[in-house]
Every structure is written in C-alpha cells, then in structure tokens.
Amino acid sequence: MSNPAAAHGSGGRPQSPSTESMRSGDAVVAPERVTGAQSVVRTLEELGVQTVFGIPGGAVLPVYDPLLDSTKVRHVLVRHEQGAGHAATGYAQVAGRAGVMMATSGPGATNLVTPLADAQMDSVPVVAITGQVGRALIGTDGFQEADISGITMPVTKHNFLVSSAADIPRIIAEAFYIAESGRPGAVLVDIPKDILQAQTTFSWPPQFDLPGYRPVTRPHGKQIREAARLIQQARRPVLYVGGGVIKAEASPELLELAELTGIPVVTTLMARGAFPDSHELHMGMPGMHGAVGAVAALQRADLLITLGARFDDRVTGRLDSFAPDAKVIHADVDPAEIGKNRDVDVPIVGDVQAVIVDLLEALRAEHATGGAKSDLGKWWEYLDDIRKTYPLSYDPQSDGSLSPEFVIEQLGKAAGPDAVYVAGVGQHQMWAAQFVKYEKPRTWLNSGGLGTMGYSIPAAMGAKAAAPDKEVWAIDGDGCFQMTNQELATCAIEGIPIKVALINNGNLGMVRQWQTLFYDQRYSNTDLSTHSRMIPDFVKLADALGCVALRVEREEDVAPAIAKAREINDRPVLIDFIVGKDAQVWPMVAAGTGNDEIMAARDIRPLFDDDEAAADPAEIHDTMDREQATTEGDSL
C-alpha cells in the first residue's frame, strides 16, 4: 500500500503503511483552514469512501452540514442506527473494504453496539464515526452523554476518542487501516462536538502513528515446509475452510490447492462460496446443522488443514471429541486464534492467500523431487459413500403446508449463483446455507458469530448499495424481520431495490424447534401470531413501506412469484411465504454433544450407531491402515 486512500479506494488488501511511500505516492493536498467537521468529510473523500449509513443528531450535526456539500460521499439516511451498522457490514462483505456508519452521541452511539459486536465477531471491516458531547461535559452525565469508547472497547478491534481537531485526518485514516488490515474488524472514532466545531488545518496525506501494530502477513518458511510434509503423509486429510479465505481473496488459490492434492474440502457457515458447491471435492458445510458427509470428514480425518477458521463451537460440537485422531495445521492472520480452542501441530501465522501460495510452491517442489502424492482412494471411497447415502434433503410438511426448504431451494435455482443472498438468524438461515448452491465468494452474507436477529434487511441494503448491478435477496424470518423491517422504507426512498423472501412460519422457528426436541413441546412465548391473527399483515406493511408485496401459500405459486419479483427492479419487493410451523432443520448436532452424535433426522444417527460396524471409527481406521500398508509394501 502506498497510502491509506489507496488501501480503501482500490478494494485491495492493505499492507503496512509507510510514511515515505505515502509522501511520494499521494497527490498532496495543500493545507487549508477548515472546521473539524469539514476535516472529517474531507478525510472520508480522500480515503475514497463512497457511502455512509447514518442518522444525524445534536453532537454529530456539525459533520452533517459539510456532508451536504460533498459530491463524493453519499449518505444513506437509515431509520435506526442498528440499520446503519448492519448496512455498513453488508456493504463491507460485498465490497471487500470497510463499511462506514455514523451516529450521534448517547443513544445514537449505543444503538451501534450490536452491529459493531456483530462485525467484530465475523471479522468484517467497519468504521463507526460518532459524535460526542463537548469536552467540558464529558464525565458530567451531560445530555446524551455515553462513554461509547469504554462501552465498545470489548467488542471492537480498536477505538479512538479524538482530543484535537488537528488529529482528525490521521486518526480516521488509521481507523480504516486497522479495520482492513490483518484480521479485519470494527473500529470506532468518537469525536467531541467542540472539536468538530473548532478551526483546524487540513492537509493530506497524514503521517501514521501506530507503534506496535504490525500485522504479520507473510508465513514462516519452516512452518510451510512442515505443513507440506504432513500433507504428503496424510491418508485422511481435510481442508477445513473458514471465512478468512474469503477475507483474504484466496478462493482461486484454494481451488488450485484442492485440485493439486485431491483433498476433500469443507466450508464453514462463514465460508460458503469460498469453494464451489458444485465441485466434486466439496463435502459441504460442517457444524451443528452441517452435511453429514462434512461432519464425518472432520471426525474421521487424520489431518485438518485449517485455513482462516477458528474452531468455532458450532463446528466442533463438544471440543474434547472433535476430530480425535487428527493432527492440525492451523493458518490464520490472527495469532490469537491459533491454539485458542484446539492444540495445533503446525501453527502458521499469515495472510491465508500468502499461506496457500507458499503451500502450493512447497508441495510442487516435493512432487518435483520425487515425493509421491498421498493415495486418497480409500478415503474418498468412504466419504463418497456417506455423501451419496445421506445427502441434504427434506420431507413435505405433514399438514400439507408449504415447505420452507422448498421455497429457498426454488429461490436459489431461480436467482442463481451470481445473486447475493443475505440471511437473518435462525432456521431460515440454516436452510439458506444448505439449499442455495454457492459457487462464488461474497455471495452469501449472514451473522455467523453473534447470531444477530434483525441483520438481514439492513445488511441486504448495504450489499445492494455496494453492488447495485447485482440481484440481492434478503432471506428473512418473521421474527427477525420485525426487528429491522423499517429499513425497507430507506430502501424505497433511496432507490435500493432489494428483494425479500420472508419465510413466515408464525413463530420464532429455531427456538420452537428446540422446544420441540428438548422441552417436551412446551411452546413458551414463541408464537408470534403472524399466522393465527395476521398481526402484522406483512403484505400491507410492506406496501406501506413503499414495496411491492406478494403472498404465497401454495407450492405451485412459488416459482411464478419469484419470477415476478425478479422482474421488478425499481423498488423493493417482498414475498410473504406462509410456511409450515413444524418444519425443522436437519441434520443436527445437539448443543453440548459431540459431532459423533449427529442426527440426520430426529433420533436417527446414520453414521455412528454402535450397531453399524461400518461406522465404527476403530474399524474404519484399522481397515484404512491395513490397506495403506499393503499398498506401500507393494510399492517397495
């Protein structure tokens, strides 16, 4: 990177800043006298920021005045600060660079806490700019005062409280660099009102002052060579791929690595699209609601090549029984993640794209000097049998109601792999991850780590703002939708024509599923009355918010409704799909259990029952060991 503006405006991955290169590479802006607020706007312009999501208020109002004159920065006036935060996240996930949110002090700033925590958990680069009460009022419990720096410290990568107007360009540029570099994350910049009103001098580029912040991006050669050696020796390896591969823009290199080695690939919830679903090496999504084959691959592996994943509890199940016989190679740009949840045999700190490139080079060197590729024939024979026997599937609803899985499957087929799909949280999120086929990165957005209800509509708005030529579908549940549906008004007014597939089962679906399975069908406070009393009537609500609205209750009407929605591109469209309330997400690994206890359906454990000899781990391992030893003996 030659300068912070290039880092943000180009969409590339920022590298370590250099004062000298910034001086020589930037178009230098002559010093000019401005207010602190004008300095904020000028800094955003120089950084190449195109869109800001926010709501004005007293403490941040000085920024909104010069923002009105900017011809480079578009401001999207949301209806709730949480909407601004999730919109910035959706923007960042599609654009590959930091999304920006803005709010006033006190309640405006605190309404950003959830989206900041959400972005930080999922390693999404966002920058929040908040107004603060004047410095004389800080600490006095002044009107709309909140210590947002202190409040957000645990849920951001870094935050700043600006103490001088002269520091504004440097601090905001540093905020973008920190958000986008290394492991991406959330950064907050809090600016007191009197500093925004003060006179200062603006010049560009700024000189960074980040002592001690030097993200490691290049992997160590010794670790790469050791990883290559383990890969060569493994007989049951798995490429365990996390969202870091998408953040690193490393999908082409991952495809090359998989095809070079023939190793099966599993993609976590945050990595859907990092590797093509249609590829023969792809085993699917692992985890609590992952494919049986993907879970089995991890459990029976003798080597996990973990790329940009963090051994999340939703993937591992009970940690002490996860992949019990596997050695672990763990590559991540964040050294804090390596060894945090699982002991690691080969730790590799570095940008995942650089790691894969070096691994490819090391493996090709091994092959060139006579090192034979591992024979994975028996391993694939085992995995192929599992995935053919237990594919993802669903049954029609016993009461004849519309199956939510059918709706989502039909949507994926109609919109195709070039569309962007943005899910809320719950059953519909899992069905969207399972039954839409993802072929490309940055086409699947969801709240994975924090599991934030209300994410989908504003995040879809941000995604569409980042890629206006793409078809963007929000797949939301009736519970999630009621938390942030007001942002459809924003979409209608701002000309952001997202499409919404509302999976309306009348309940808090995932909570109801747990009540069915673990609470003796005692349905405490999960009925939302959207079926029984039609409160609200989502078609009328969507119409009032400026959308085209449709309702579908029969299977034969699903495809025509989706086709009609796809033809409308001048305003948002909502389809209210009335689906069965008793549909459940399968497969499932119940919370607190190990992955060996995965159920393909209720009380059906297809792979790991004791009475199925073929699924006995010891027998699998012994058989493969004997066959491998025979093969090696023949070759000698």
Describe the structure.
Residues 224-358 form the Thiamine pyrophosphate enzyme central domain. With 636 residues, the protein is of the alpha/beta class. The protein has four domains: 23-204, Rossmann fold, CATH 3.40.50; 221-389, Rossmann fold, CATH 3.40.50.1220; 404-578, Thiamin diphosphate (ThDP)-binding fold, Pyr/PP domains (Rossmann fold); 604-631, no CATH class. The chain is 39% helix and 16% strand. It has 26 helices and 20 strands. A six-stranded parallel beta sheet has the order 3-2-4-5-7-6, sandwiched between helices. Strands 11-10-9-12-13-14 form a six-stranded parallel beta sheet, with helices on both faces. Helix 18 packs across helix 19 (427-435). It is globular, with a radius of gyration of 26 Å. Residues 1-16, 18-25, 609-618 and 626-636 have low confidence and may be disordered.
Q: Poorly predicted ranges (pLDDT <50, ≥5 residues)?
A: 1-16, 18-25, 609-618, 626-636
Integer-rounded radius of gyration: 26 Å
Number of helices: 26
What sort of overall outline do the alpha carbons produce when their principal axes are compared? globular
Give a quick set of tags describing it.
six-stranded parallel sheet, Rossmann fold, TPP-bd_CS, globular, alpha/beta, metal-binding, disordered C terminus, 636 residues, 20 strands
Task: Draw up the topology in text.
Blueprint: H1 4-9, H2 19-25, E1 29-35, H3 36-46, E2 51-54, H4 61-67, E3 74-77, H5 81-95, E4 99-103, H6 107-110, H7 113-121, E5 126-132, H8 148-152, E6 158-161, H9 168-180, E7 186-192, H10 193-197, E8 199-204, H11 221-233, E9 237-241, H12 244-247, H13 251-261, E10 265-267, E11 282-284, H14 292-300, E12 303-307, H15 313-316, E13 327-332, E14 346-349, H16 352-368, H17 377-389, H18 404-415, E15 420-423, H19 427-435, E16 444-445, H20 456-466, E17 472-477, H21 478-484, H22 487-494, E18 499-504, H23 509-518, H24 538-544, E19 548-552, H25 558-567, E20 573-578, H26 617-635
Parallel strand pairs: 2-3, 2-4, 4-5, 5-7, 6-7, 9-10, 9-12, 10-11, 12-13, 13-14, 15-16, 15-17, 17-18, 18-20, 19-20
Antiparallel strand pairs: 1-8
